[in-house]
Automatic annotation (TrEMBL), chains A, B:
GO terms for molecular function: FAD binding; oxidoreductase activity, acting on paired donors, with incorporation or reduction of molecular oxygen, NAD(P)H as one donor, and incorporation of one atom of oxygen. Residues 7-378 form the FAD-binding domain. It comes from the Eukaryota. This is FAD binding domain-containing protein. The lineage of its organism: Eukaryota, Fungi, Dikarya, Basidiomycota, Agaricomycotina. Keywords: FAD, Flavoprotein, Oxidoreductase. Residues 424-599 form the Phenol hydroxylase-like C-terminal dimerisation domain.
Length: 600, 600
C-alpha cells in the first residue's frame, strides 16, 4: 500500500529556485514540502553570481546578513583587449561592476551555490522545515475536472514520490495530494517533461570551459570581474571565496572532440587543458595555480542553449520555474538570479490563494510576468553572447567586435543584468493609471531604496526594510505638506478609505501601512494622525535629514511626489509597485484590490 | 580532600566586566575560567546603556551585529523644563544624543543587561567555554614570594571556590591555582574586600527611583533620551526594548523613610508610588501604564555613591575592575561602559604576558590607565549630578540651575560620556613623541573611524574593522605619495625595519600590517610593494573614493598625515594609538616595542 498524504504545496527540486519558494511559502504560513532526488546539496562549482536585485530580494527575507557574511563582493569590472603593441592583452578600462545608481547594493556577489542553498536551509530549519531527500517523483497527474480546478481548496494534483535507490516499488513509495505543485528541478526538469511542456529555442555553437582554482599571477585584476578579448577567444575572470577565481574559457568548436551523440567528449578535455588555454590568452601576464597540491576545486565544459519553456504552468496548478523554464549562457550571471526571481514572484501569489485572500486568477500573472522576463533574457543573451564570443576587430577580422560595442552593450544592459530594471507589464496587480502622482516610483518596478527617518526616535530607516517579503501588500502613505489647506481632509478621507479596505479584505486587522510625512522631525506630529495611520509608532517616517546628517532626505523629490497633494502607493508583497492613488480618491484603492482580492 | 586545579586566569564575577575579560582572553587563546556566585544571569532591569565607544569595542570583538539586532538606538536627546507659562513642563530643545562627530555609531543603545551577558555567553560558548555557576570564592591568597611574583609562569594566586549552597565544606570545595585573577564581582566585591582594598570617596544625598514599564502617554519623546527638570525634582526617560521606557525619578530625601541602618526603607516605597511622582512631574502631559495587567517590568531605589578603589591590582597578580573599582550615578549611563572598558583594557595585557610576548611591567599600565579614568569619571559625575539634581532657577530658587548650564555641561562632557574622548596618558605603551606625523590620530586615543578602499577589489573598508580585538598589535603603514622622490627608499627602509621587528618579537610570523596607499585605485600598485608589506591582498588599502562614490576618501587629511612623507602608526590591541613613527627611522618602532615586548 502506498502511503497517502495531503499538502498545500509540493515543490520538486531543491536548488536556489525551489528553496526560495519553500522558504517564502513556509514563512507565509503555508503548508509546504520540498523534495529533491539528489542525496546531498551542491558541494562545489555551479552557479555562483548574485546580482544587485537578488541581494535586495534576499534582504527582504532577512537573509542579507547571511549572504554578505560569506559572499565575495565584486565592485569593479575590468576589460582587457589585444594590446595595441600586438603582443598579448592590456587593460582597456576599469569601471563599476554595477552601473545602476539606484541599486541598494551596487555590486555583484559571488558565492558557491551550495552556500546559497545552506542559507535557505538554515532559514527553513529555524521554521521547522527541511528538504526531503533523496526523493523523486515518478508520476504527476493534474485533475481534468473543472470543478476541482476552480476550487482553490481542492487537492488537484497527485504526485507519486519514491526514493531513487529503493528496490521495492511499493514500500518506499508515497502518494502526495497537493493543491499546488512547483517544478524547479533544473534544465532537464522531470516535471516539465512529465507535463509535456516544450522548451522553445535552440542550442548555439558556443562552447565554454570553466575552472575554479587559486591563482598565482601578476595579473592585477583577480579580485574584479574581468572580460578578456583575444584574437583566439574570450575569457571571463570572476573572483570567488578563499582567494579562488573562476575562469570561463571560450573554446573553439573545431578543436573539440565530440562523442557519438554530437556532445563534447569530456574524457578528451581536462581542467589542466583549460588552464593551458587560459594561460596563452593571459600573455604577457603570468598565470598558474598557486598550489598544485590543492588542484582545481571544480571544472566543467558546456554548450550554450538559449531556450524558454512554452508554458510556465498547467492550469495554474503546477508551476515551472528556474532552469526548468529558461536556459542561457552564464555570461551575465543570470541563471541563479532569474531562477530565484521566478519563485520570489510566484510564492506570495500562491500564499494569498491558499490563505483564501486572493482569487485564483492572481496565479495567471506568474506566467504573464515571468515568461516575458525569460524571453527578454534570451533576447539579451543572444545579443550579448554574440558580442562577447565574437572575435575582436583586427586587420584579419575586419567585421570583428570593437571594445566600444561590447562596452556599450555592457552599459545598456546594466539595468537588465542587475535585475533592478525589471518592469512588469500592466495587469490586475500592476495598475499604471496614476503614475503621475509618484513619477519616481514606476509601477511594475521594485521600490527603489531610500533612507527616511523614523519620526519617534530619529532612526535612519531604509524604506526597503519596511517592505519585508511576508506575502502581504503594503501601503506607503505620503501625507504631503501638513501646512496645506486640505491636509486634514485628505488624511481623514484616506483613513476612512483604508478603514473600508481593511474591513472588506482583512477583517479589520491592523494595516501594513507606512506613513511618510513631509517636513521636519517632530515626534509630536505622530499623535495628530488618525490611529489607523499609525498602528505602531515605528510605522511613521519623515522625509528629513537624519540626526547625524549622514542621510540627506529628499525622498519626496526622488520618488516624484508633490508635497502639495501627497500620494498613496500600493506595494506588492514582492516589493514591486502595484498601484498609485491620490489621497482623495478612495475608489482607486478599492478598485485595485477588488481586481483580485476576495472579500472576507 | 579538596580538588586542586591550575588555570592561567580565574575571573570572579560574570557581569559585563567579567564577561568582557573572559571572552577576550579566551578569544586570545588564554586558558581562562569565570565563576559567579549567582545561579542565573540578570533577568531584568540593571544597567542598560551602551555608549558609542562601547559599541565600537563590541564591534571589534565581532559582536556588533548581535548588539544592534536587539538594542534600542537612541539618537536624540530632548530637554524639558518648567513651562514659561508656569504650569507644568515644556520642550526646551531636542538635539543629537551623541555630540561627537567622530563616533562610528553616533547614538546610545539601550538593552537589558541580561541580553548583553547572553551575547558574551554565546560568543564564549562558540569557543567551548561557559560560566561556572553558582560558584563563589571563600579565600584568596597571593604569594608573598618575590621569585614567584616575578615569574609570569608561576601560579601566584590560590583561590578556594565553593558552591554557595553546598552543605558539606569539603566535598564541594575546589582549590584553584591561578597565574592571574580578575575580580569583577560588583560594587560589593568580595575580592576587593578579601584583599583589603579600600573604596575612596563618599555617599551623596541624592536618591533615585527607577521604573521600567510600557507607557500610555501623549508625551512625544518616549523614544528619545529625555532630561526633565521641574521645580519638584528631576527625571530621566530612556527608551527600552518592547516599547518600554525606563524612568528615573529623583526623590526628596526628606520625604523618604529610612530604616535603622540609615538606608532607604524599600518596604515603604513602591513602583506605583514612583509612577505617581513621575506623573506629577509630567504635567501637562498624561502618563500612565499601558496595560495594568503587564505591570512594572522592574523597579528599584538607590542612593548615589561616588567612590574609586585605592588600588586596581595587588602585585599585578590580582586585578579589580568594573563596579568593584568605581561607583557613581547612572545619570550618563557610564556604569556598564566603564566596567567593560576596564577589562577591554586589561585582557590583552594579560594575554600578552601569559603568551610570553610581553614583560610583566606591561600589567602596571592597567591601573595607571584605568584608575585615572575612574577618577575622571567621579569628577565628571560630581559636576554633572549636581547640575542634574539641582533645582531649576526660579524666583524662589534664585541660585538654581539654568537649562543653559546643564546643556553646556551635556555638550562639554559629550566626549567623555560617549567614551570616544578617552585619552590614556604617556607610558611605555603610549608614546607621544612623533605626534606631528599624524596629527589627526592622537596618541592614547582610539583610532577614529574612516572608510578606505581595498585596493584589490575596491571594497569600502572601515579601518576600525581592520583592528579587531585579537590581543595583537597592528601597524598602519601610510606609504604616502608614490610619485615622490624617496618613495622607494622609504618603503624599503620600513620593510627592512618591519622584518627586524618580526624576527625579534614574532619569530618571523607574518605581520599584522595594513598598508594604506595614497592616490588612485589601481590594483597593479599592490604588486610593486615589498611582500612583507602585503602579506595578503586584502591588507592593502588606498585613500580614494570608493567605486560608487558613497565614501569620499580623504583619510590622509583626516588623520593629519602628510602624503609627502607618510607615517607609521602602531595601534595597541585595544585599538588605541600607541606610537607614531616616520617611515625612515626604524629606531622609533624598535624602541617602542623594546619598552615592553620580550625578544623571542
Amino acid at each position: 500500500m502506498n502511503q497517502e498524504s495531503f499538502v498545500d504545496v509540493l515543490i520538486i527540486g531543491a536548488g536556489p529556485s525551489g528553496l526560495m519558494a519553500a522558504n517564502a511559502l513556509r514563512h507565509a504560513g503555508v503548508n509546504v514540502r520540498i523534495v529533491d532526488k539528489r542525496a546531498t546539496g551542491v558541494a562545489a562549482g555551479q552557479a555562483d553570481g548574485m546580482m544587485p536585485r537578488s541581494l535586495e530580494i534576499l534582504q527582504s527575507y532577512d537573509l542579507g546578513k547571511d549572504i554578505f557574511e560569506i559572499g565575495t563582493q565584486v565592485h569593479l569590472a575590468a576589460f582587457y583587449n589585444p594590446s595595441k603593441q600586438g603582443d598579448g592583452i592590456e587593460l582597456t578600462r576599469r569601471v563599476p561592476n554595477c552601473t545602476i545608481a539606484s541599486a541598494r547594493y551596487p555590486f555583484g556577489l559571488t558565492l558557491h551555490q551550495g552556500d546559497v542553498e545552506k542559507i535557505f536551509e538554515r532559514s527553513m530549519s529555524s521554521m521547522g522545515m527541511c528538504i526531503e531527500r533523496p526523493l523523486a517523483p515518478t508520476s504527476i497527474v493534474v485533475s481534468q475536472d473543472d470543478s476541482v480546478l476552480h476550487d482553490p481548496s481542492a487537492y488537484a494534483v497527485k504526485v507519486h514520490l519514491k526514493q531513487p535507490d529503493s528496490e521495492s516499488e511499493d514500500e518506499a513509495a508515497e502518494v502526495v495530494n497537493a493543491r499546488f505543485v512547483i517544478g524547479t528541478d533544473g534544465a532537464r526538469s522531470w516535471t516539465r517533461k512529465a507535463l509535456g511542456v516544450a522548451l522553445e529555442g535552440a542550442q548555439t555553437d558556443y562552447y565554454w570551459g570553466v575552472i575554479d582554482f587559486v591563482p598565482e599571477t601578476d595579473f592585477p585584476d583577480t579580485r574584479n570581474y574581468v572580460a578578456i578579448h583575444t584574437h583566439t577567444g574570450s575569457l571571463m575572470v570572476i573572483p570567488r571565496e578563499n582567494d579562488m577565481v573562476r575562469i570561463y574559457v571560450q573554446l573553439d568548436k573545431n578543436a573539440l572532440e565530440m562523442d557519438e551523440m554530437g556532445n563534447v567528449d569530456r574524457t578528451k578535455m581536462s581542467a589542466d587543458r583549460l588552464l593551458e588555454i587560459a594561460k596563452a590568452s593571459f600573455h604577457p601576464f603570468k598565470l598558474d595555480m598557486k598550489d598544485r597540491n590543492e588542484g582545481f576545486k571544480w571544472w566543467t565544459i558546456y554548450r550554450i542553449g538559449q531556450r524558454v519553456a512554452s508554458n510556465f504552468s498547467v492550469h495554474e496548478r503546477v508551476f515551472l520555474g528556474g532552469d526548468a523554464t529558461h536556459t542561457h549562457s552564464p555570461k551575465a550571471a543570470q541563471g541563479m538570479n532569474a531562477s530565484m526571481g521566478d519563485t520570489h514572484n510566484l510564492a506570495w501569489k500562491i500564499a494569498q490563494v491558499v490563505h483564501g485572500q486572493a482569487d485564483m486568477s492572481l496565479l495567471k500573472t506568474y506566467e504573464f510576468e515571468r515568461r516575458q522576463f525569460a524571453q527578454d533574457l534570451i533576447l539579451f543573451d543572444k545579443t550579448y553572447a554574440t558580442l562577447f564570443c565574437g572575435k575582436p576587430l583586427s586587420e584579419i577580422n575586419t567585421d570583428g567586435i570593437t571594445h566600444e560595442e561590447l562596452y556599450q552593450a555592457y552599459q545598456t544592459f546594466g539595468g537588465f543584468t542587475s535585475g533592478i530594471g525589471i518592469c512588469y507589464a500592466p495587469s490586475a496587480i500592476t495598475c499604471t493609471s496614476n503614475q503621475g502622482f509618484a513619477t519616481g516610483l514606476p509601477v511594475g518596478q521594485r521600490v527603489p531604496p531610500h533612507v527616511f527617518v523614523r519620526m519617534a526616535d530619529a532612526l535612519a530607516v531604509e524604506i526597503q526594510d519596511m517592505l519585508p517579503a511576508n506575502a502581504r501588500f503594503k501601503i506607503l502613505l505620503f501625507t504631503g505638506d501638513h501646512t496645506r489647506d486640505n491636509y486634514t481632509d485628505d488624511i481623514q478621507h484616506f483613513a476612512d478609505t483604508l478603514g473600508d479596505v481593511l474591513t472588506r479584505y482583512q477583517k479589520g486587522r491592523s494595516p501594513d501601512i507606512v506613513t511618510i510625512l513631509a517636513g521636519d522631525k517632530d515626534p509630536a506630529r505622530i499623535l495628530s494622525l488618525p490611529p489607523i495611520l499609525r498602528p505602531h509608532w515605528s510605522r511613521v517616517l519623515v522625509d528629513d535629514v537624519d540626526a547625524h546628517r549622514r542621510h540627506p532626505g529628499g525622498g519626496y523629490e526622488k520618488y516624484g511626489i508633490d508635497p502639495s497633494r501627497g500620494a498613496v502607493v500600493v506595494v506588492r508583497p514582492d516589493a514591486y509597485v502595484g498601484a498609485i492613488a491620490p489621497l482623495q480618491e478612495g475608489g482607486v484603492l478599492k478598485g485595485y484590490f477588488d481586481g483580485f482580492l476576495l472579500a472576507q
